[in-house]
Amino acid sequence: MTEQELEKLRRDKWRTNGMPVATFEDAHAFIDSVGLCLMYPLKPPVLLPSFLAATLGDDRALPTAKQAFADDRAQHAFDFVHRLVADHKAFESNLFAENSLLLSPTVFPYFYVLAAERTTGASRDPLSQLATLAWKALEEAPQTRHSLREKLGAELSITAVERALGELWMRLRVLPIERDGEQYWDTTERWAPEAVKESLRVPMAVALSALISQYLEAVVAAESREVEDFFSHFAPRSKVKEAVNALLAAREFSFVNVGHRSLLQMSPTAPSAPREPRRPSRKEKRHA
Question: pTM of the prediction?
């Protein structure tokens, strides 16, 4: 494979080839196809498709997360994401500051497993006192940040409430939900009970392997370093290397040479053996 061929495959997959995501059905299909993508490009860049770029059909001169709210080109992307989340066809994570990581319903349970693994147990960072209080309030009913502030104490600043919500969101205890033009916060167990229930049956190693596989599906091919860099945000590098080596040993992954680089890819599906033509019977030969 050449660099140009890889670039074309990614542009076709990421919808930056002049064929943008134009309808809600397109948006749903795109999220299902890539499994996980950023809302906006990141700086320094992370090897992942961008939902905003997909809705524009181009990844050049895109606004940053801070610029997007003042950029008319981003409105379609906002509308699609709000509807996808409301219809349980996508989930948002705040893994990256000021930039949503969008996840398909198929991928979300695996991601949930890793978020729980990273933030639970005696060796993990405990919730702050304010986040714990916010969690208890949200267990009773969904809240806006302002109604949550009233429950927790009017002397609190909105910034402090948002920080507590961000802490819970990072652990996937809660999710932001758009409702009637306003942002509410709901517990993940109440909003997506089936996804949470499914995650309880998935071991951490299986979840990590499934996510790495989906990542390679999304980016077509990647250097081992690029895989480790991305997954180091929510899993130890040693665990990522173990998962990659196991998938290589199982021949789920293989290497492809692209220019002077050796990249990981999903192993091509072996073509089925051609069927031997059926030989005519003696009876058929007599009547031929």
Answer: 0.85
